[in-house]
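A quick aside before the break. I want you to see a complete sequence-to-structure record at least once, exactly as it would be stored in a machine-readable document. Don't worry about memorizing anything.
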Amino acid sequence: MDLLFGILSVLAAIFVGFNIGGSSTGVAWGPAVGARVVDKTTAAALMTLFVFLGGWTVGRNVIETLGSELVPTTAFTIEASIVVLVFIGLGMLFANLYGVPVSTSMTAVGAIAGLGLATNQLDFAVVGSIMVWWLIAPILGFWAGGFIGRYLYPYLEREFAIERSSGPLLTLDPEKTLPRPTLGPETTAREVVSTVLVFVIACYMAFSAGASNVANAVAPLVGGGIVATERGIVLGSLAIGLGAFTIARRTMESVGNDLTDLPLLAAMVVMVVGATITTVASWLGIPISLALSTVMTIVGLGWGRATRPATVAELVRGESETKVTMGSLTTEPEDEVPRIGEEDPDSIEDVKQLFDPSTVARFVAFWIIGPSVATLLSYVTFRFLTLA
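That is the input. The structure line, written in tokens, reads:
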């Protein structure tokens, strides 16, 4: 019977990791695949590698938080671990059905918190510190995106806006004794630099995903002593990689969530900010949502870009009507960037609305509902079925 439960617990962890790989790979590698920097198979292999690196280094701290600090390790019986992982998987399924990027980390915390409440073993101080970061992360994402959009984005666009040539990026010079790569017939040095940046940022995003998400798949198993930390990291990374090689191929093609409709430069900015917030929080041992940071960075970036025609004084006095649109991020780069307050509002064309209040409200609602439902279901299960 113990062997059967052991197999079931590992399968539950693989199921969670498989779904994580399917959703997070598209966000991390979608822009790079769309820009023809790498193909889907290479992206999946690199995703697996950098997820493992993120889990093996920074992700250990998150595993410790989820596996031993929210509740003591004695709470994670093999049955309890299975139930917690099932609730995490169901939370992801519920989110995917409604097309909302609900955080796996938040759902995992909710499921484990329900176990702790039912058994009177929950550490409320740890829960409080986690929830503080859940408030800080989207605020940081919004204002970081807003600052970059208002003060830096036009300059980044002028220097790094990516215009892909029709031919190959690099070719081999056959006239040399030892063939060496040279720029393609229509390739510019700027295109090469931009392409390398896309690749590096995608690797960084994958590392961040591993730092935050490997724990969600294996922390209950590690906390219950079912697998050791190192083996758990390997198991979680391989499960995420399995999702990357299979169901993620579709999400990579559509470039994941809200990054789909962003210009490639804007997507790169969003990925760097979101990944940095997530990596820092993971280093501190905080289970945090990558989606939470990236979505609010998108909103902040568009808002900041759209407010450039107005001075700070005009914004404070409410004298500027700011409409955040996708066009705010798709303007043509200029040789001379206008100063703040001097840009022509008509130059930021109204193409497609980026900030839809109803969509953001739906995201926020599910960010609250997801972990809340996981907590409630977990509490009821462990309270009345006495599995813990």
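Two observations worth writing down. Residues 2-384 form one domain. Residues 255-260, 349-354 have pLDDT under 50 and may be disordered. We'll return to this after the break.
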